[in-house]
Amino acid sequence: MYIRIHPSWQRALQSEWSSPYFTKLAEFVRQAYSEGEVYPPAGRIFAALDACPFDKVKVVIVGQDPYHEPGQANGFCFSVYDGVPFPPSLVNIFKEIRSDVGVEPLPSGDLRRWSNQGVLLLNSLLTVGRGDAASHRGKGWEQFTDAIIAKLSAERSNIVFLLWGNYAIRKGQGIDRSRHLVLTSAHPSPLSASRGFFGNHHFTLANDYLKAHGQQPIDWR
User: What is the pLDDT of residues 173-190, one digit of tens each?
Assistant: First the structure.
């Protein structure tokens, strides 16, 4: 597996790379890319980690798996390439930003602009087969991304974790609430956004917490 990742994450996750589960995961991923169409492009599997160094993470948004249709997944949860129509969940995220923060999001679904400010856009699964949601479930990605969250929880302080939907909430159960702010709500999917995502004010709450702890708030545009 080609691993393009920031050196800070290479160090933080050193024990994962040589573990038996990751060796099996790497073999599975290599085979999957050789046999079919898998997203995101191989060089972007670890894009979220590469763009947001371990010691610079201020906010973590936890997604599930990459978009599984052609031309969408770019390695960041909820994000798509510039110029790609916004998926429904991203439409709702931008709607909540307008309502909560009172700013107009940029006309681009590429959320790397957030990562550059310290927002780790972490999917639980980092790869997916074309047209087959959650097809790479149970292959080791969950353990790997659990390790990322655990490492941040244990070794950093004052991070805001945004957990949207039951899946993300379960994944964040082990986060140390005495060291970090954990905000939970319904998922931004059209199926659930009206049941608690809209009006959660997570973007304002995150920035208020960051400012209270001497950190620069996120420009959510």
Answer: 999 999 999 999 999 999
